[in-house]
Amino acid sequence: MPKVFYAQPDGSERVIEGVVGDSVMQTAVRNGVSGIVGQCGGVLSCATCHVFVDEDDLAACPPMSEDEDEMLDVAATDREPNSRLSCQLALVDGQDIHVTIPDVQL
């Protein structure tokens, strides 16, 4: 089972075993991870699940869609080159992912 490593702005980290096919956002919301709001429920109409993907994991992520790219432009925290919406990151068997949650989502 893939693991998601959620780094909080205060430096603490929470590790959760996820379900293949679920998103990083769904995994966070189901497990009460602080800082991932997922206000739209994962339909790509908000940016409240913004995360920074660890540089070592970024290449394994699927390509960013044009819609995701546009949504990141309105995220509450300025985007970085490794910014992604966690609702667009599906968990893959045998592949862990490390993300950092920004200070602000709304």
Describe what is shown at a glance.
By secondary structure, this protein is an alpha+beta fold. It is built from three helices and five strands, in the order E-E-H-E-H-H-E-E.
Any overview of this molecule?
- There is one protein chain.
- The chain has a 5-stranded mixed sheet.
- The protein is an alpha+beta fold.
- The N and C termini lie far apart (31 Å).
- It is built from 3 helices and 5 strands.
- The radius of gyration is 12 Å and the shape is globular.
- Helix content is 17%, strand content 20%.
- The longest helix has 7 residues, at 24-30.
- It has one domain: Beta-grasp domain (Ubiquitin-like (UB roll), Roll).
CATH topology heading: Ubiquitin-like (UB roll)
**Sequence of strands across the biggest β-sheet:** 2-1-5-3-4
- Order of H and E elements: EEHEHHEE
Structural class: alpha+beta
Terminal residue distance: 31 Å
CATH superfamily: Beta-grasp domain
Layout of helices and strands:
Blueprint lengths: L2 E5 L5 E5 L6 H7 L19 E4 L1 H4 L7 H7 L10 E3 L11 E4 L6
Parallel strand pairs: 1-5
Antiparallel strand pairs: 1-2, 3-4, 3-5
Label this structure with key terms:
alpha+beta; 5-stranded mixed sheet; 5 strands
